[in-house]
Write a structure and sequence with these properties.
This protein is of the alpha+beta class. Helices cover 19% and strands 25% of the residues. The strands form seven sheets. Strands 6-5-4-3-2-1-14-15 form an eight-stranded mixed sheet. It has a seven-stranded mixed sheet with strand order 7-8-9-10-11-12-13.
């Protein structure tokens, strides 16, 4: 362990000088190794919340008056190999994604060190939240570490154990190694030694949802143990909700006490089970950020936030635009974001309507025309915030069809029980022969009851359907079309219930 720590601290000489220069000149420099990316800003006049640009992983840095705190550290590249019986290599453990270098580079650029790193808080023992905690703690040595007590014995559902014990034990060991004050239980009493209420510069902080006891009644998932952090500064309020859900009524209770927040880190990456309607109605967030994939955003939550007029941002989108973090600055005039611009963006979703148009986090009517995404094309009619679904489209004298996934059709397709053929660019063919089959002037296949329809190896209906055609004059599709996102997503180890 000593050699590993030595390696991590190697090269720290000179950071004090770098920090002093940054404070004196307020220089904004690019992150080393991230050419072209938007670098973090050093400015201590306001309170800032940095949400790192990660996909399905939480790493949040708080900054106020030159002091820093951290809520979760995100996923790392380390995982148990199964050689220690305490830490089996279970199904679902992340073995692919890690943000080690991204997080270290960002913290280094901000000038985080032992003297200004006041606390680290782990919301709960899942690797996409505290996988990197031990390395952050060892490298930057926070003065305090807040981490609720955990044991695999507290979980009543074995498939949800993953590498929880592994990442928890590593974080506790790291806190003890560097001499940080390890706080595993807090009190709502303000004057208590380990109070849930504390400060970071001009920020007033409160740990929420910390009073569960799973020693008798077990949790089904460590998400049930998740803490949250309320941040208040300059009249603005933000709630960083970890993976808090409502399976045990946590959001119902928080809805009674939190009240309005200006900025909400959505619970559990905006998955179902979190961010319930009553909770969102009580918090009425002006802004919200998702630390996950918009494609997997709960449809119910998405519609509720749209109804509330909440500006929705995503860490994934910020990463795609070159930002290493979404930085919310809390000032007396409100909240501003480094990622703000007035460009329209198109967001693909996996259920319901499949493509939406947003501007500054709000749904807006998209211009009329086709939008390309991952090789698929979506049609906006100029009157809606979402793409067309299952309908014919006439554009520049040609006919097209968008299917049930909002995608522009190509090849042989069945629409209203009739076969049509669409070229590679989606144009409906008519008055012509395709695959030895004739398409009428309306584009529909001219069917001979004694034949089998389009002679296309994958779309051919089959002889057993001839009698159905003779009886009804229609043909049913033989092969269902699969649109974008229909492939199964890799099951993430934090899916919960």
């Amino acid at each position: 362990m000593g050699e590993r720590v030595a390696r991590r601290f190697r090269g720290r000489l000179g950071w004090a000088v770098c920090l002093a220069v940054g404070l004196a000149l307020l220089i904004v420099a690019p992150i080393p190794g991230l050419a072209g990316a938007h670098a973090p800003h050093k400015a201590y006049a306001d309170a800032k919340i940095h949400v790192m640009s990660q996909t399905y992983s939480d790493c949040i840095i708080l900054e106020s008056n030159g002091l820093f705190g951290m809520v979760d550290a995100g996923e790392d590249l380390d995982y148990p190999d199964g050689s220690d019986s305490r830490y089996p290599l279970r199904s679902g453990i992340n073995t692919e994604d890690g943000y080690d270098e991204q997080v270290f580079a960002y913290l280094d650029e901000l000038g985080v060190n032992h003297d200004n790193f006041v606390f680290f808080m782990g919301t709960h023992p899942h690797s996409d939240h505290i996988g990197l905690a031990n390395e952050v703690i060892e490298r930057y040595q926070p003065q305090r570490v807040y981490l609720g007590k955990y044991s695999d014995s507290m979980i009543g559902y074995e498939p949800a154990l993953w590498d929880n014990q592994y990442v928890y034990d590593q974080a506790v060991e790291a806190a003890n190694l560097v001499g940080a004050e390890l706080i595993q239980q807090v009190s709502d009493t303000v004057i208590a030694k380990h109070s849930a209420h504390f400060t970071l510069g001009d920020m007033q902080l409160t740990i929420e949802n910390h009073d569960h006891d799973f020693s008798v009644h077990k949790a089904l998932d460590a998400n049930d143990m998740s803490w949250g952090l309320l941040v208040e500064a300059y009249g603005q309020r933000a709630f960083l909700s970890g993976d808090i859900n409502n399976y045990l009524g946590d959001e119902d209770r928080l809805a009674q006490t939190l009240g309005h927040v200006d900025y909400l880190k959505l619970g559990h990456h905006a998955n179902d089970g979190s961010n319930t309607d009553g909770y969102l109605d009580a918090l009425t967030p002006t802004y919200a950020i998702q630390t996950g994939q918009f494609e997997l955003f709960s449809t119910r939550t998405l519609y509720k936030l749209n109804d509330l007029g909440t500006h929705i941002y995503t860490a994934q989108e910020a990463l795609g635009r070159g930002y290493q973090a979404t930085v919310a600055t809390l000032g007396e005039g409100g909240i501003s974001f480094n990622t703000h611009d007035d460009d329209m963006v198109y967001r693909h979703h996996d259920t319901g309507t499949y493509m939406y148009c947003y501007q500054d986090g709000l749904p807006v009517v998209a211009p009329r025309g086709w939008v390309e995404w991952s090789g698929y094309y979506f049609w906006f009619d100029g009157q809606s915030t979402s793409a067309a679904v299952s309908q014919w489209v006439q554009d520049e004298g040609n006919w097209y069809y968008v299917d049930e996934y909002s995608c522009r059709a190509t090849g042989w397709r069945v629409v209203d029980h009739k076969w049509y053929y669409f070229s590679d660019d989606g144009v409906m063919q008519h008055d012509t022969w395709v695959d030895n089959s004739y398409l009428r002037s309306d584009g529909a296949l001219e069917v001979n009851p004694l034949s089998v329809g389009p002679l296309h190896s994958k779309a051919r209906p089959g002889l057993d359907m001839v009698s159905e055609y003779v009886r009804t004059g229609t043909l049913q599709p033989a092969v269902p079309h699969e649109g974008p996102g229909r492939e199964s997503h890799r099951g993430h180890n934090r899916g919960g219930r």
